[in-house]
Amino acid sequence: MWMTAELERAHAFARDRGVTRPLYALVRVLLTPFLRIWFRLRVSGAEHVPAEGAAIVVANHKSFLDTFFLAIGTRRHLRYMAKAELFRGPAGWLLPRLGAFPVRRGQADSDAMETAAAILGHGGLVAIFPEGTRVDEPDALGAPRHGAGHLALATGAPIVPAAVSGTAHLWLGPLPKPRRVRVTFLEPVEASALAGSPDAVHVLVDDEVWPAVRSEYGRLSAAGGALFAGLAAAGLVARRQTREPRLIGRLEPGRVRKRRRRRARMRRIRGVLPGGRR
Prior knowledge:
The chain has two domains: 4-246, Glycerol-3-phosphate (1)-acyltransferase (3-Layer(aba) Sandwich), CATH 3.40.1130.10; 248-278. The protein has nine helices and eleven strands. It has helices at residues 4-16, 21-38, 66-72, 90-97, 110-121, 147-155, 200-222, 226-233, 254-272; strands at 42-44, 55-59, 78-83, 100-103, 125-128, 140-141, 159-165, 171-172, 175-176, 182-185, 246-247. Helix 1 (4-16) runs parallel beside helix 4 (90-97) and helix 5 packs parallel to helix 6. It starts with a helix and ends in a 6-residue tail after the last helix.
């Protein structure tokens, strides 16, 4: 594979050295004002992220900026998985120094899991998006994969559920839309109480962590801004109903879905052209 050497170097850096602190601090200083102002970012529940020690943040995923919004919400260095394709060229040097490590999407990646376990073993904070890919639909979440549960049970790290709203369809061409983005960190879920149970991973992820993320995402999506809240309190507008987002199952990586859509469009085009197959 053309990326083998790049991925090996990225994993080695993530396991042994971690972020480059001055660079991480510089990027945080440069990005935080823009993200907070442009997206009117609101973060709540940051006190639920442990101040030190191993922890796993599990969140929904609709934009590559989700990682940045989560990182702004905590003073700790946030480590996170990024798709392997990004670690080519100069980005392969930069991303590990900003906390990222590669994951091969659409398959079980033991290297990524080993790197995450090593970071947790050093007392780090790791963010995982268990849907495995970005879910475009604003009113839906994907079914979670269980990697975060396995890591929590293997390392004893608590899972901090987190919901990020307002980031679906965030881009208008090359520019981000001025949306209102909200991030909420929820109370940690301890995996140690489930250790030894044959259904521990299922109970931890499917019954405790992901329902909490879905419920909070629905609440955030239904909430308006301060003006809307004031109008609703005065009875001038109707309050929005809170609904849990649909659960649409496990999705293939975005590149695979795009390829399928392109093929479907081409079949439709050929079907209407003269001499095309119907």
